[in-house]
Amino acid sequence: MEWLAANAVTMVNGLALGAVLFIVAIGLSLVFGTMDVLNLAHGSIALIGAYVGVAVLGGGASSALSYAAVLIAAMIGLLAGVLLAVLTSSVTDHLRQAMLTLGVSMIVADLLILIFGADVKAVPPPPALAGTIPFLFGAPYPVYRLVMIGVGIVIGIGLWLVLEKTQIGAIVRATVADRAMVEAIGVRTRLVLAGVFGGGAALAAVGGLIAAPLLGAQPGNDNLILLYALVIVVIGGLGSFRGAAVGALLVGQVQTVGVSLLAGYASFLMFAVMAAVLLIKPAGLLPGKHGHAGGH
Amino acid sequence: MKVGSDVAEQTGESAAVGPPGSTSDARRSRRWLGLALAVVALAVLASMPFWMAPYPITLMSRILAFALLVVSVDLLTGYTGLPTLGQVAYFGAGAYTAGLIGIHVTNNAFVQLVAGTLVAAILALITGAVAVRTKGFVFLMVTLAIAELAHKQAETMGLLGGSNGLSGIPAIAIVPGGQPLRLAGLIYFWVLFVFVLGVVLSLTLVHSPLGRSMRGIRDGEARMRAIGRRTYLVKLVAYTFAGSLAGMAGTAWVAQARFVSPGDMAFSLAAIALLSVVFGGAGTIWGPIVAAAIVIVIRDYVGTLADGRGGTILGVVFVLAVFFLPRGIAGLRRRNRAVAAAPVAGEESR
Question: How many angstroms separate the CA atoms of A148 and A150, rounded?
């Protein structure tokens, strides 16, 4: 109980980090699951989201501007995703996909430095959420982080409902299972795939924006977020919805509680955990129904 | 990972048993042409210090060391079908070993080369024993973990200078007790020696029966196992060899830079090393070497000329290469030859 009291705040911090990482990682996982494309520009899209926050909220945040930032980030993410879907549609070889998406991410990283400079930019949370409230054992806790957890849960449940309970979700799942058959019953699978790519990228951009008050906006964060997302989807199982959630929760806790408990080994923990999981369960903890993780 | 499908045919040349007569004549003359080209390239490389300024020569040294790292990635990615981001770990191990020996023991270049290669080989053997149990995307992520863990280790270890890196490495000397090499041109000759040694060893490997087994694993591991090959052992040997080669490259890098830092094991370096293999044409040796040269020239030279926009130019080159060079730089030669050789029976791709 004493341990719990001492670490409760750290654990909630971990939940907040896990929630935004889930929002980013789920897009990577869905795109891989449906299109068999490993989008290594995913971290760049999240960083674009963070810089949308800089551009819109840098001069002073208000509630209206915060909503606008979320909308703009989602729109830019959607466009970027559709563009990437078009670019990758004719590239089936995984190594060439890697070259294409990493090439795009190098261009984006350079352009962002050109526009916003190379120094760290802070992004303020919406003013209504900027304060603290007494929480767990009475200690003040930032409201914004609790909201992050809430947003993560809402997006997770909403996405699960869309994928499992609606016709759109059924078409997406069917496209994963048997693309030719879905095409044969008259569905334009190219549109489905572009939609999934766009949706996943929009989530990444919004996730990057929401994470920005925590992580800041700076060059190099694109690779950082990409590595987080890769570790999460690999731990959970590529293409698996529940896997991404479990992976994000695990990485969130490892990066907060684990780091505070084992300070000396902080930087090793995440990759050590990933290596351990992969060597015990190569397909991830909760592999998707049509698991791709075994390699081709 | 669909690595095999695209590279399978590029190396078919050495594996295919063609009909006798004109085809084998053509192949033999092609082999002589390749050898002649290699000799000419080597002569040009060796002559460079005599007509180049010190800065371009330093750039050339960097290119050769990086190219050797890229070849080591290619041996796994292109020849064995194991896409890797982990070779920078062994590159760094070789570089740090050479640097430490230079500071604390001797500035003899041969000692540094052997020690750096051995340390990298031992590390590759230990980590490879676990890593090669996986394949495809999982292998890629395990090697990424190896590289990141090595990177973090270098950042935290006091002996290695932490995140500041290892500086004050003395200039190498070739003969024991001899003059340290300070001129960029002389160091370049040493780097060229290590490069040629590494490339010759790699060519020997890929043309050996072991190299054929590696390609067999890439194209169909289950079949290799079915005909009684111990694929785990082949992969482990290939992994250890590639790790040693990366270590050699690391010692050459340090001989030239006389500085090594955790940045030399970073994800960004691992990524451009892997992309250089794809850009050059996975499963050939010369293609990735040419690609490595282009990548370093853009990153370190054109980038500074173009006001630090090296990342953009490199990114554009990679994106264009995906669409216009489907088989990489090496595919250019293949296409020309395919046109020329089209009428010959039995030569068309299987």
Answer: 5
